[in-house]
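As a warm-up, study this chain.
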Amino acid sequence: MEYVTKKVQTYQNGKMVTDQFYLDDDYNVPDSKSDVKRVMLGEGTLVVEEMKSVENYIRVAGKLHFRVLYVTDEVENRLASLEGRIPFEEMVYREEQLEEGVFLSHSSVELTVTMIHSRKLNIKALAEISLQGETSREQELTLDIDSEEAIYKKKEEQEILKLAAAKKDTCRIKEVVSIGGTKENMGTILWSEVTGRKLDTRLEQDELKLMGELLLFCFYESPDGKIDWVEQTIPYEGRIECEGAADHMYHQIYEELTDIHVEPRMDEDGEMRMIGVEATLEVRVAVYEEEKVSLLADLYSLRKDCIVETEEVELSRLLMQNHSKCKVSEELQLPEVKDNILQICHSSGRIQVERAEPVEGGIQMEGVLHVSFLYVKADDDVPFDTWQGMIPFSYLLESRETAEDMTYTVSHAVEQLSVNLLGGDRIEIKAVLAFHSFVKKPVILHNMKEVRLESLNWEEAEKGPGIIGYIVQEGDELWDLAKRYSTTVEGIKEINELESDEIKAGKKILIFKENMSIL
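Now compare it with the structure written out below.
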């Protein structure tokens, strides 16, 4: 007996675990920095350096990188910035058994910086990390069996999602931009922010093509002490080798912009009117291909007893790969800044998803958009300040097909954000939120692992009636009836003059045992 098999590589995401923890530490202002009079702005980023499984926990260790923009306590008030690092270690509990690998799919930090005195700051951070499990396996499926003995076989068509390629790689981004002619020459960078937007990923032959934008904001002091800022959109392209990929396939991607570095550079005239931007786009991608396979679902023999050993195999079927956008618009009254805002320099946003739940028609997303902006105010001493707030949002990621047991991953990003002055104490916030979803449904198969042919107990087989009058029940198939009453589909069709394998419930048919002497 010879087995016809097919090997299928699978990739499964485990349950995502989200953990929140607090960091609270005092930070001494370095001797090289000026005294602090007032904190204007703070930002934090988690850098995970190690993840290790310890029984039912995952030990996550790394550093909180933070930056602070502040007003100096000097005879003439100035703006200055400082940065530091705080180590952290968190034990994240997982209820389910650990998969082969775990990676960080998302992290965010809500940072609060307060003054203790002019040489010491208190750093408080609410950090959130999301860990995703992953498992990659090779499954061997039985498609057919060749045997010298006459065996009647039932095939089952299945559409499955198989893994074509999976890898983790980086794309280096290096760009240089010039500042406008009306802007001051650059001296010291006080604050910079680089965020990724409008990332579009496409599969091509043996590679993944990346196209996106970097939004650069640079707040700086000129050589003669004047404050100015630059905000520019920088398009970029990149490619990552991905052997086995093709343009008709599907892909699931996790990306993170890291190692960001911004520095002033000289132009051709020797003036500091250029900005060099470097960053690393870390990409984790899984490439899938849909394939229809004809699996051996059942078999029997009229002259042998077929002993079948099966194994349960979990595969997947694609329900949806969707890139969609949600528009958010809100008008706010800010009495605390009435008649104080002269101009908005820069705005930034961060999405916090509070609930993602499968519902009829898709996945319901609920959360808040955290918004902050830096503005010019009517104050001769320090003509800048910041505002922070949040806007709730609700969005349905639509899907043509949903299932209770479906699994999904959703990544999100702020694609566009604008804050406009409406006069008085009113502002308008408009944003476009991008959601990338990949939705799968588990497919459970009973794969034939081994088939043995043993001698048939003829005495037992002869006990049943040779001719059966049968009324077709709902859900009956000719193949199942043929196996149950030791005959063949062709035999039932011939006796009952049936032209196809389809039979309707309620129809009366005759079934003759194939191995009876009457035949």
